[in-house]
Amino acid sequence: MTEITGDAERIVAALAAGGGQLDPYPLYAELHELGQASALTSGKLPYAAAAYGYRAVDQIMRDATFEVHDALRLEPMSPTWREHPVLVTLMNSMMFSNGDRHGRMRALFRKVFTPRRVQEMEPDVIAIAAELLDRIELLGAGGAEVDYMAEFAYLLPARVVGRLLGLPDDDISWFRAQVDVINDWLDFRRKGPEVLAAADQAAADITTYYLDLIAQRRAKPEGDLISDLTRAVADGTHQVTDLELVGNLLVLFNASFSTTIHLFGNALPLLLGSSDGRAQLLKDPAAYVEEVLRYDTPAHVFIRLASRDTEFLGVPLKEGQLVAVLTGAANRDPRRFAEPDRFDPDRPDNQPISFGAGAHYCLGAALARTEAQLALPMVVERFPQLALGSEPVRTDQFILRGYKSLPVTVSSLVTAGGSADASG
Length: 424
Ligand code: HEM
Prior knowledge:
By secondary structure, the chain is of the alpha+beta class. The chain has 18 helices and 14 strands. The protein binds protoporphyrin IX containing FE. It comes from Kribbella voronezhensis.
């Protein structure tokens, strides 16, 4: 534990404040000078400690003493939580469960969401990417700017997870709107009553939608994940209620596109900002994607709660106290990654902690990697003239780091005389 707790407080407060994630990396570098983890004792932040070293982050995520928020913890804090559909739905998911309940739900999803299923999704990923690139070519004809975030980085993972679950493509934009409202409420800073009311409505609508779809697939199974889930529950090996299915489907859909969108987004400026970016990506897409996940990861902060009085790397913690787990910082830990602020797809033993570790390790890591490894090369191969356009707009969240919009051009500017401008 560092003695200079005041510094850690200042840095974590700066990260959590508006704009803190616009450029967190100098702040992470300062944290690494303090060690692996620090107590945050002023009481001004909701967290009693922060874990930011790679070893500390890995250790805390694997340690069952540290739990995620669940219904049991919520009860004393918010006895009326059952009146809020958004809380009920989330608390019914593996992301907000611990121990046996978590294991029971996760086992069902692992049974049907297998590496083989991810492999079977590969033709879908390629087909969806090709379709989106066709549209971008049309939109970008004559040098017009296209928003890569809206037209590709979001649509690709959203359509892929829609295909996985068996949701019609036409329903995806409705889903995104609902999920965005819930994400607004989930982000630590936006918790006003109107934000909660909107999130409640969105969760209630999604629940109705999914319950209906589950009933349809139960009556007439198809080749999608929801059909497989209902079949696995029906054969009696997995006891998961319909409302638990809904909670997990909600977090799965949400967790899949709201993170992968930023893997695609954060990769692009890196690719285009370096003279050998394209060649490096095409040489070894897997290594390239892994380095994007390390260097500019989509999800930077997770929360753990001490399930009893304990000590973590010298930091004393009382039962119920929160620890901010900074995965984005861990990926830049100089003790784990040589020259951590250098983007280097060739770095040896590159194992970023971007998908977490331990019991809650990302269920969709293989799918996210597959999407990026297949689709990013398609983007650069399709558009040799791809270039960044006008000023991008960044998101301003504490947890997720990425772009709201990222204008690009994909073809040369057509001048008034009709000839292509080679510089465009
Ligand atoms: C680049 C993209 C992604 C990143 C960076 C990411 C990151 C993470 C992380 C760090 C966790 C652990 C959370 C914790 O320990 O509290 C997690 C959990 C989870 N992720 Fe992902 N994820 C990504 C894509 C996906 C995709 C594509 C899916 C689904 C298709 C998905 C589904 C989930 C689920 C269901 C959990 C909860 C697992 C549990 O609580 O047992 N994620 N993700």
